[in-house]
């Protein structure tokens, strides 16, 4: 087919010239960047140096935190909130956080149904607003609730602040396999620490030969392991199995309005040395499920920290007297 020629067509030269000039500008920018980094080089290092840098610090942490003041089991929104308030209020306490997953945060990286926004209800004392302002997380205000634009903003901010405290150590990819117990002065069971293992080991007890655990002694445990599941509601289920708690109430169906008050008000020391908070408490008491709303998770953690501050001296005294 013969080519078609269009009379009076606009010249293409100016367009080509503009494209060439733009490409040249990019090249100039890249050249400037290349010049800036031309003499860049990392310091020379031997692989064994990196290995020793990691292992010496990790095992020093294990050594130091083998005797802790408070162990927090579960680093979701409730556990991290408890860790933040406790570490801030009592910088003298040694606080170990045990998290089974590699990534802390539990279900608080997203809102409901994998949506981004995190919703918290407002309350009579504006506790959720106060907590968000304290940790520096901005939010939108509606009539009955507030909204953080992305749940990950809340969780990453809170996690960052917790990890900066010098009296806190997070052991992630680590599971609590059992509880350490003692008898108190009346012969009743009290908590004295946790039994731990690396999660990958815990997952393979059924298909490998005996792999014994490790331990952390502590007079107070805050358990916030969530509702029933592979690792959920661990502490309260173990308390039932050893006869320290009568029976599981079993989490009820979703009632957002009722559930949040039940969780915050119900956060407590269930047996000497063991504070239960968050959705694990719903399994203990038979409280309602709350669904995709997060205020009570954070505020249950705040209450758990307050309770820990109230009981720590008495539990320490028991540890010294009845070991």
Descriptive terms for the model:
323 residues, alpha/beta, FAD/NAD(P)-binding domain, three-stranded antiparallel beta sheet, 14 strands, metal-binding, cytoplasm
Give a structural overview:
Substrate binds at residues 78, 99-100, 107, 176, 212, 227, 279, 289-291. It is built from 10 helices and 14 strands. The protein is α/β, with parallel strands linked by helices and 323 residues long. A hairpin with a 3-residue loop joins β4 and β5 (145-148). The chain has a 6-stranded mixed sheet, sandwiched between helices.
Explain the layout of strands and helices:
Layout: H1 13-37, H2 47-64, E1 70-73, H3 77-89, E2 95-99, E3 118-121, H4 127-135, E4 140-141, E5 145-148, H5 151-164, E6 168-172, E7 174-183, E8 189-198, H6 199-202, E9 214-217, E10 220-223, H7 234-241, E11 252-254, H8 256-266, E12 268-271, E13 274-276, H9 279-285, E14 288-289, H10 295-321
Parallel strand pairs: 1-2, 1-10, 2-6, 10-13, 11-14
Antiparallel strand pairs: 3-5, 4-5, 7-8, 8-9, 12-13
Helix pairs in contact: 3-5, 3-10, 7-9, 8-9, 8-10
Structural class: alpha/beta
Mean pLDDT: 92
Biggest sheet strand order reads 6-2-1-10-13-12
Number of structural units classed as domains: 1
**Cα separation of the termini:** 99 Å
Percent of residues in β-strands? 15-25%
Radius of gyration: 27 Å
Quaternary assembly: single chain
- Fraction in helix: 40-55%
CATH-assigned fold name = FAD/NAD(P)-binding domain
| CATH architectural label | 3-Layer(bba) Sandwich
Catalytic activity: [ADP-thiazole synthase]-L-cysteine + glycine + NAD(+) = [ADP-thiazole synthase]-dehydroalanine + ADP-5-ethyl-4-methylthiazole-2-carboxylate + nicotinamide + 3 H2O + 2 H(+)
Family: Belongs to the THI4 family.
Enzyme class: transferase
Organism: Pyronema omphalodes (strain CBS 100304) (Pyronema confluens)
